[in-house]
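Re: beginner question about structure tokens

> Can someone show what the tokenized structure looks like for a real chain? I only ever see the sequence side.

Sure, here's an example I had lying around. Input first:
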Amino acid sequence: MLNRLHKIIRPTQANSEKSSVTTSISNLKTSHFDWLYKYASIANTTQANYQDSLKTMAMITMIIDHIGVYFYPKQPLLRIIGRTAMPVFCFFAGYNYKNQPKWNILFVGLLMFIFSIFIIQHSASANILITIFIGQCYITCLQQHLKSFSMAFWQVLILILATYFTQNQFEYGTAAIAIMVLGYIAQHDKKTLKDTVIITLMITFCHSLIFNFSNKLCILTALLLTFQYIVMLRYPFEKMVKINTRWISRNALYIYALHLSIIQLL
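And the corresponding structure tokens:
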């Protein structure tokens, strides 16, 4: 009887020991590769999306525009290329708006404004950063009335008309705020995305007329903005992309301030 019990218990103990060893090895593998899983999850959250790509392209055209302003003022082609930057930044400033204005935008904008007046002695209207901050304050006050296109249409129209009186006070005037409102609408009413983008680019084209471009250059501007419409709607803004330009787009505020200050000093 004892021999029989011994034969039964012994294989059971062996199986238990084998199972314990297998579990230990499995736990060792899991713990060993924990850092890899964590790294992969972090990499996934920091991967760039299509919006980052659009903002990076806008950053490049903005720099081209500023080079044209300060170094080649008689080359209108550089200014035309630069017309594609403002609508992208302002649209996404509204599209990504959450609950309150970003005070760092106002702080950097005021520093640059003071720098332009007292260091370079260049009198100018308040820069685009201050305009964006004003737009964020506007959305904060009226956001309950801006979540559908039908509710916000008249406000966008009034902002566009008010550009004539405000463009000398701050850069792009209330036209930039109208574009921010359109971006905010697109975020909360996805069906209006195509409409809001096309109105954004129409506002940009109308604002470009203040440069008194020739007829040929106006046609070129219209063609370039049409191409931009196609590019902006090519993919969903949240679609992940292979080329990681996230570090550029997420630091656009500081890249803008740094490059413009350097160009002004030169």
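Each token stands for a local structural state, so reading them left to right follows the chain. The chain has two domains: 2-41, 48-265.
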